[in-house]
Amino acid sequence: EPEVTQTPSHQVTQMGQEVILRCVPISNHLYFYWYRQILGQKVEFLVSFYNNEISEKSEIFDDQFSVERPDGSNFTLKIRSTKLEDSAMYFCASNGGLGDTQYFGPGTRLTVL
Amino acid sequence: AQKVTQAQTEISVVEKEDVTLDCVYETRDTTYYLFWYKQPPSGELVFLIRRNSFDEQNEISGRYSWNFQKSTSSFNFTITASQVVDSAVYFCALRTLNNNDMRFGAGTRLTVKP
Question: Shortest Cα distance from B57 to chain A (angstroms)?
Fold first, then answer.
């Protein structure tokens, strides 16, 4: 069964460093998302991406964040200058069409020291 | 505005007990989708069920059942004869036709003791 994959599973970085989190959505899906879950809290929407551009973003998704689909398979989230409060689990998700179920990847745990 | 409320922060039951997880949602949209996801201790989000706003039929899948009631804006989840492997955090989520982002509730941590 096709699934969303994410790498790395765990990333440790120093405050102020740039990180890139990688996702490979399900191959025939058209809509891609990033969500964040701070430890012990709920899952929060960051951004959605469709047709090679951002379709929606939350107030969390400020100028230090960016997303890209550099080729036909990868979908990346870049955090330009990490802060301590960026420590969280980051989930990628994808779905085939509007209203379809979103399927989540296993997550990348980001730890900012 | 969309909002999902899971009032139960934590529930603890003994194996074989039935347990119901509550979910109340708010939206002004007439077309929307409701979801339940399970997050086991390993951390991934596992899709359990999706319900469309125009389909109020309740659903049963093995030991799991869902009760969707538009009149009370609720989408409750019942586990029958709970097992230790059901221990996880369960999230209810809402998405509308006009917004592709999912709004999650705060989650309910279910602990099933042997």
Answer: 18
